[in-house]
Automatic annotation (TrEMBL):
Residue span, Protein kinase domain: 1-239
InterPro entries reported in the protein's UniProt record: CLK_kinases, Kinase-like_dom_sf, Prot_kinase_dom
GO biological process, one term: regulation of RNA splicing
Organism annotation: Aspergillus terreus (strain NIH 2624 / FGSC A1156)
Keywords associated with the record: ATP-binding, Kinase, Nucleotide-binding, Serine/threonine-protein kinase, Signal, Transferase
Lineage, highest ranks first: Eukaryota, Fungi, Dikarya, Ascomycota, Pezizomycotina
Protein name as annotated: Protein kinase domain-containing protein
Transferase among keywords: yes
This protein's record includes keyword Nucleotide-binding: yes
GO MF, one example: protein serine/threonine kinase activity
Amino acid sequence: MFVLSLSLYLLWSGFHFHLRATDLKPDNIMVRLEDPELLSRYARDEFENPLPQKHCDDGRIIYLSRNTYGPLKDILGLVEITDFDLAVHGDSPQDGCILAEVYRAPEVILDRGYTYSADIWSLGVMLWDFLEGRTLFEAVDPRVVEEYDDETHLAYITSLLGPAPKDLVGRGKRTSMFYTAAGTLKNPDLVPSTFSFESTLSKFNGEEKKMFINFVSPMIKWNPEERSTAKELLQDPWLHNDYTQI
């Protein structure tokens, strides 16, 4: 949980200085090496016992990564959010396409304008990568395998949260691509019949699962204005329950 706690603290610090990250994803949350000797040891291991390699027809070699560094000894001061080259001022709504596809908040997909709360959505969705080893939303077009699809993404969000609020839909520049004039999805068949916070979680049970859902559900809401702030999330009981899971 310390990775999440420090990520929230770093986000809150950025918000304090009126900055939005805009590219929050697992690849941009770094845990620094505690001991530089790890690199020397891994280099020796690779020299003595090289990992499998794939030799491509075009001459390229694909190497299997060594990414197991063992448990951390210190929980403080090790996490950093990177790639702030895309950061923007967050006091007023910004337009445009930001964030990695599966972590995009609905207001980003609809181009309704986004502020700090889009980062909160992204971090909430990202927790499934940390906990379950997979994304929360399987936003892949069933008609085109392995291709991300905004419409499918919105359908999964609808299944999880219910229909989108008319105020949100009505103010999106891209709304007409996905919604009818009445504010309903043009392709309702894309909406999964059974999809919930409970059904997507296998790592928690009982009271712990309930506490986690109570923590994450305020992060993943249709209306940006209704989402918890980073400061509020830092005070949530689940985050202080223990430091053994994340």
